[in-house]
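Batch 3, record 17
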Amino acid sequence: DVKVTQSSRYLVKRTGEKVFLECVQDMDHENMFWYRQDPGLGLRLIYFSYDVKMKEKGDIPEGYSVSREKKERFSLILESASTNQTSMYLCASSLLTGTRLDTQYFGPGTRLTVL
Amino acid sequence: DQQVKQNSPSLSVQEGRISILNCDYTNSMFDYFLWYKKYPAEGPTFLISISSIKDKNEDGRFTVFLNKSAKHLSLHIVPSQPGDSAVYFCAAGFTGGGNKLTFGTGTQLKVEL
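Prediction for the assembled complex:
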């Protein structure tokens, strides 16, 4: 079974703090993704990466950055947390065959509250 | 611009009856569609998918129908069970898009006894 783990289930931070969210997958997947889920807005893609040290902006990258130093690990960084970044953050991974879409496997999520 | 829309935020169905969840999309480049199911405090899990070359895909109690001309897809669950109560997300992508998916806003399904 594919396993995607996220470092924290719940996190409370203060405005202006630097926040790191970590994600690890154990299936040697090329692709990794960071989403945020908000009521009425569904899942929105923040950043994704198709290889080590590669990153691509998603639909809402502002206020976020990412790091992928190892294939199995993808980190989301909030440089200076703001209250509008309070959300559920979901990490996902998938294969990248190049010929078809592959299922994305999600972690359990991190509920981040910024005070 | 919401390229994938789920216009019903919630749906309530009796156990044993059919649940029909709907999804509309606007981007003609999408050629692959998926449904994910999400329970509270868990990540979404893949349920069923359909390629644009098909108009129906079935897996047990779950069937997805695709109407390309209307840019509409639907998920049918028959018979509905209480364990199906969850949020269902429709997602779309296109071959060559790096497996990047665009998700809808979700529909909360409640199956009542």
